[in-house]
Amino acid sequence: MKLLIVSTSQRSNSQSTKVARYITENRFLAPHSEGYEAIHHLELCKFNLPFWDGEEDNKGEHWPEIALKVAQADALILITPEWGGMASPLLKNFLLMCSRQETAHKPALLISVSSGISGTYPIVEVKMNALKNNKLVPIPDHLIIRDVENVLNTTPQGARNIALRERMEYSLFMLHQYGQALAPIRQRHIHQSYPKQQEYCYGM
């Protein structure tokens, strides 16, 4: 199994990237990390992706590299900052560019990052209207990292910091469980497809 972590802040050296690196580097978050043969991190702001205009052949020079990593992944983590109560434009553009052949029936852990006490709205937004056609499956255990500048740093401090790390470990464990459970569904979907499957390729 392969895990893909996508951080979608439009700023380099962002707090979203810090969260992604924490997950990537801390392999002690067992048992989930032991079950992945590879964990990749994509920092979208490092790629020159165009705003998608609906044309499949107009996704930019870097998209084939990104699409390959998405297609190879068995589970995804999508990390977005909260800007004005919304998910990152980069995240929404990324999800528009993904095809269901790359993402369908794969579990996704959604993580919202906030410098304050908010962070709920991006999770709600993505679950409500960003997964209809790509058919990603958001697991119930999303994460909201509040006051992000003061957590997940080099040395854990305080009960809240420790509780957050333990909650992340649980959510990552559940993501791995969903990854294992959905893999056979994807295989059956490929080899034993539903009659007239293409008539229902878009969500309702």
UniProtKB/TrEMBL annotation:
Keywords, alphabetical: Flavoprotein, FMN
Domain NADPH-dependent FMN reductase-like span(s) in chain numbering: 1-145
Keyword Acyltransferase: no
Stored SUPFAM superfamilies: Flavoproteins
A Pfam family this chain is assigned to: FMN_red
Name of the protein this chain belongs to: NAD(P)H-dependent oxidoreductase
Organism: Shewanella cutis
